[in-house]
Amino acid sequence: MASWDVFHAETLELERGLSSASVRQGLVKGSIREDDLVRPAGTSTPWTRLGDVAELTAPGAATGTHVESSPPTAKGGSRRQEPSDFELVAEEGLTPPPAPTLRSPDWLELRSESDDVAFPVLRDLPAAFDPGTPAAKKPPEPDDTNAEVLWAEEADDDEDSDDAIELEEATPEQAAAAAALAASTRTPTREASSQGSRLALPVVHARDYDDVPVVDEDDETFTFSRGGPQTVEELDLAPMVDVAFQLVLFFMVTATTVMFKTLEIPKPSNENAPASATQGRSRSLDDLSKDYVLVEIDSEGNLKIDREPAPADLNELVERLRSTREKTGRTSMLLSAEYLTRHRAAVLAYDAAHEIGMGIVIARPSSPEGAAPTLGSPSAASPPASKASASAGGSTPPL
Amino acid sequence: MMFRRDEEDRNEHIDMTPMVDVVFQLMTFMLFSVQMSGGEKVDVPPARHGVGVEENEATFLTLLKPEPPAYEAKLLLGHGEGPTATIDQAKAAIAEGVREGKRKVIIQADGDVPHGEVIRIAGQVSQVEGITVHVGVQEEAKGK
User: Fold this and answer.
1) Residue B45 counted as domain residue
2) Looking at the whole model, is its pTM more than 0.80?
3) What percent of chain A has pLDDT over 70?
4) Distance (Å, whole) CA A12 – CA A98
5) Is A252 touching B (CB cutoff 8 A)?
6) Does any domain span residue B126?
7) Nearest to A147 by CA among A168, A116, A119, A122
8) What is the number of domains present in chain B?
9) What is the per-residue DSSP string for B63-104?
């Protein structure tokens, strides 16, 4: 009956000489897992994943010799192309790290020392990965009982051939089992890249960097700058346009709003009117008061409307003029102010007449030398004053 | 080995938004603080119903109040700062303005100028054909 050495991948423990029934029983109980590694007891054949040995996993399988058993060989040709997850450790005598708990890849083989715990040893990638290289090495022949082919260094490596460890002679039975396992696996071995390396420890490869081209640092300046798109240094003109537009608007508004406030006054008649034109046509204030609302202002600024005193207030004056106009029907104002009356008092009377739309007639005052005041020109330029001009158009001021 | 980024990676954009905001605020301030009227240089009387006349549409004469005991006002050409002129010079300036299309004559008379002086000057300048005579006023103070 075949016996097996079982390497517990999780606990890194080795059990020797277990029978096939014990292995299967351990599988059922859970003490042995399919990811554990097995090999015929006492042989130096490569460790094989237990789950791949049909003899041990199939319930009720025949209990024939393990030589006849044929572990699955389907992985030989259709194995997935995946990068190596392990690398060799160069230092000898290093305490082996924990074995990988993951399922070991097919190209992983174990050290075949019969009397000691064997650790996984990397073999080369399959030839399918690199057909142009001599990696398509010839796998060990099934009948080759020399177990040293499973060691890290290939036999074709002349320089490293001395590193191969001579294995003890195995019994014929063990050799047969080993040959069977070797034939069943037929996995190309990976040539150790590190000379003198013996142990293969699990190392995770950064796959993205496997294909990074080697750059000579001496030939190229190394920077950490990003190679992103270059920024376009374009000046944004929108704010400048905004400012210019606002300035233009500002100057347009201020240029058109600089205005002078004015009040139009009747255009006085020609001061040098011919005597023939004015003779006999002079009219007294009493005569004109029949047609105009008489507003008199003395040199102190006191106002009289139709000979009656009135407050020198615009609103009061407006009300008095309005009421007078409504009572008498006179639509124009005759302003008779003294020569020395302040101009602002006369403007008050102008403003009041403009507010209610009355025409304006100005009596020209006499000079302060003593001439008696006479009537001013009844002519008016503003539309309301034109009415007054029409009504008093016949009168020519004797100025 | 260089540990700094390339020059083109820097964003050298100047944010002009605050500047635009400040300029806009300044303009708003000036817009409301500027004197929209003519900026009277003479203390013309206030009036409620003054009509705006643009500066380039009129010929300006200024009457400053006389120094007592004199009663004749001081006549200036222009708006408050012109040279002292005689009535003939004023008439000539008005005639020149009429040829330039300025058919309005604005007498910027101080409020204390005798009313008779204003009427006298108005009667003199009215001898120029094709003009209208205005007296300058200012905006009435608020609250009155």
Assistant:
1) no
2) no
3) 43
4) 7
5) no
6) yes
7) A168
8) 1
9) EEPPPTT--PPEEEESSSSS-B--HHHHHHHHHHHHHTT--E
